[in-house]
DNA sequence: CGATCCCGCCACATT
DNA sequence: AATGTGGCGGGATCG
């Protein structure tokens, strides 16, 4: 037998493949020669020489029988040709059998033969699916690697995925313990539960989106959410525990990605997950920016994971045909129902707990727990890399970070979803755009990162014009430019309905408006802060959030509350119209009406601004981890009329536990609009332009919003989604500052979401504090036409009023230099320079004259006292710490 | 030409 | 410092 292998192998790939075969050979060679005849017989059976035969060979090799032999022989390893005698023989055989031609084939190992999937099969073949409990099988990476004839690196790829499903666990350096599939169902169940919490809404959203969209979404969310809320929380909490340990560091991707990937399947109704969607959803970080590369990398990893999962028989490759064509996807073919209880079993079963309770000492040693000291992180992160955040509700340990993380994750997810939605929209738009007559919706454009592929084409055409105008925008990187361009064109178009309107700027510009308020769904943010008190709440929140705006998309109705100069007005209408029109479709799909409505009702006061369309907008959960809390709070306030009073006045932070719950619910129902504040230099702030993403500093934002009105500064409210979509945000002002920023998010300008999220997740990004300010454009700051600013429900009525006058459809503010401030996350707070903040805040807030804001202010203060972090965040908003 | 994904450099972690 | 891990993405191969 060995000989066969050898012969095949040798010829094929002298390179590396041999090792395995060779190893056998070595040991056997001498012996084998005699045996040869026998082997000959065998050979024929396997289909000896054809290329496929090779594969078969490999597989067979992997088979149990082979394993044994191999095990014995393993030591030999792959020394090729070690014995010439053998080689010659083998060669001879080969020659004889196949003739030289065959040799070639054989030689060329063909990539498939080396595929990870095949390797994984071989790997799995070595171990029983359901090993006796008594026997513990330990796996030596080195040994396996040599046996299988691959570098260790590859084994890691396999083991990491297997570990994510608890089929194996790491025991020690270079040592893994084989658990088999005994606990697989439990693990899957756990993942499913966790997945519903994390992705349920999203998936639902997606699926529906494509189909029914709105309607279903609404229902779905409702249904799923409620259920999930209670339990999931628990699950999450568990993860947290793990996470805590996991936090340690890198546990990164593969393991987590694998789990998340599986979760997507388990949560998906269709059990089919598209590669690109999975990649987007899994890009936790949000980045966007140029993410094209990031996306590609993510996809590569998914292939790695998919190969292993395929080998496990859990998924299979399929193709999904969509409008644009066929997309690679995978279908879950594993178990769907998990009768067993995760909870109970977990304790016993070592492997079972994907989300091992923090303390489950119970876990079998070999399992995660066993790993214990070694690598908690890995195990811990059942949920995800960041699971830590979730640290159980009750577990206070590291409350902040964990929460944040969670939120971040959540946010990122949302963002991703939003991005995905946008892409679709973009796609739709694109073709529309193709027709010159038709203007593409601004929102769509950008997402360079997301769309990767699609977007590019359009932008160029448009760009030329825009760019010239935009000139100043130096988006940090090509990214910005790219992203912007596409968007800009669209924006310009949208605004005017015709590009011409804003020849210079792609985006709507507000003439001299000093401030723009962009409101997006901030929900998540708020939650977080409050969360600290209750982990549960956090979970719920997360759920709620997730449910809410799976994909934040653009919000059409952007409200401008600004004093925007006349130009604005002109533009606005057109922009609005277009945006509305264009955006509408996509938006409508995504957004559940409920969300919007409720907020409105509450916000009702917000007069014009609030009134309209904001509803439609998706709520991006961009909020950075820190932000989320704040946002939530804010959102809640606006959202819940009931609690609003308390919250609004007191601010959520103060009442985390209770408020949180409410909030979470509220949020779920009411998407927060990410809010962005854009302050023009004129505003009196010394040439500062601020763009605040709601996500980032929800609290701050909220405040700002409320305050703004008081300020009487013209504000533009842009739906978060819109913003996200717009590269504009990065607008010139931003760009400069951004450029420095490492975060890809910015670069991603194309997809605002990402950028936003990225910012949020990371430390607050401060984009050109002073921002360009002098924007030539200043006269006409552009705003994305499309997005209608969400009426910021949050905004005080006054604001609304003030703003009401101005609606910015376009979220993007190209013209002005704007500084973006990223709200730091609570944890991240350190980043922001506090010193600065105060002043700025004061400026912002002070200016305003008034309004009920005072309450908010107070709240803020209170928050500050409570949580420095929260406070900071808020402060940050105003001042943000530059990074 | 896009979809896959092997391969192995290299950074970071652990010993 | 050596060795273990594993992120990452260039670029080759497949379809």
TrEMBL record:
Pfam families: WHD_E2F_TDP
Compositionally biased tracts (Basic and acidic residues): 65-77, 643-661
Keyword terms of this UniProt record: Activator, Cell cycle, DNA-binding, Nucleus, Repressor, Transcription, Transcription regulation
Gene3D superfamilies, per database record: Winged helix-like DNA-binding domain superfamily/Winged helix DNA-binding domain
Keyword Transcription in record: yes
GO molecular function: DNA-binding transcription factor activity, RNA polymerase II-specific; RNA polymerase II cis-regulatory region sequence-specific DNA binding
Cellular compartment(s): Nucleus
Keyword Nucleus attached: yes
GO CC, alphabetical: RNA polymerase II transcription regulator complex
Chief location category: nucleus
Start and end residues of each stretch annotated as Disordered: 1-93, 333-363, 382-409, 479-498, 530-586, 625-661, 845-883
Any one Gene Ontology BP term: sprouting angiogenesis
Family: Belongs to the E2F/DP family.
Protein name listed in UniProt: Transcription factor E2F7
Natural source organism: Nipponia nippon
